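Tip: read the tokens left to right.
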């Protein structure tokens, strides 16, 4: 006799991290809430929440209110990050244990630790520019995605003001062509737009391997 086993519903991690982030912010606003452990709660829950909503945000990254709202969250988290010392930061987000960076010409545990040895481990990381440099040199999947998110929001903010973003300027300096992902609101079809020629190419979604074309 067959028996159906009902699995447990998957937790809504986005809401769990949002609640944790909100609660941590509330603690910081209390009269005696300005403590390092509360800052760390804001940072950890905030980074996790932003990561859990990144894909969802991509569908709304051209909407001004969505971009500005995300910018507010990112800057709030970054402000709290700047108050941490490198020692506290590394305890919160351990360096990724990858050791073959020299072989592939990329960051790894050794290069990060070499950079960390140049810092005062018990001095706060500091303002936005210092924090940006720190995150750029650091290696952790959560903080790396946070940095990419932060950079993309800056790019979107500048685009909304009709300006070129940092990535646009880098592409132009390398003599490359810019391509933009656009969407036909009437049909839902996504396409790539060549900024030099104005030509477009439809984006075709990959077909799962378990589906086969019937002749």
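Filled-in amino acids:
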């Amino acid at each position: 006799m067959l028996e159906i086993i009902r699995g447990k519903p998957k937790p809504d991690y986005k809401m769990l991290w949002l609640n944790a982030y909100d609660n941590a912010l509330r603690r910081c606003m209390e009269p005696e809430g300005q403590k390092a452990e509360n800052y760390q709660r804001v940072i950890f829950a905030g980074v996790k929440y932003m990561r859990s909503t990144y894909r969802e945000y991509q569908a709304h990254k051209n909407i001004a209110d969505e971009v500005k709202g995300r910018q507010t969250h990112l800057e709030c988290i970054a402000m709290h990050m700047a108050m941490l010392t490198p020692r506290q930061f590394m305890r919160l987000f351990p360096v990724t244990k990858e050791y073959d960076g020299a072989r592939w010409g990329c960051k790894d545990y050794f290069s990060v630790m070499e950079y960390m040895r140049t810092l005062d481990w018990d001095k706060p990381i500091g303002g936005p520019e210092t924090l940006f440099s720190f995150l750029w040199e650091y290696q952790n999947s959560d903080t790396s995605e946070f940095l990419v998110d932060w950079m993309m929001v800056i790019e979107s903010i500048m685009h909304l003001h009709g300006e070129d973003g940092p990535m646009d300027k880098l592409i132009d300096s390398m003599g490359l062509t810019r391509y933009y992902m656009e969407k036909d609101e009437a049909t839902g079809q996504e396409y790539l737009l060549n900024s030099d020629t104005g030509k477009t190419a439809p984006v075709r979604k990959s077909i799962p391997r378990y589906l086969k074309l019937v002749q």
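The CA atoms of residues 168 and 178 lie 7 Å apart. The chain has a mean pLDDT of 87.
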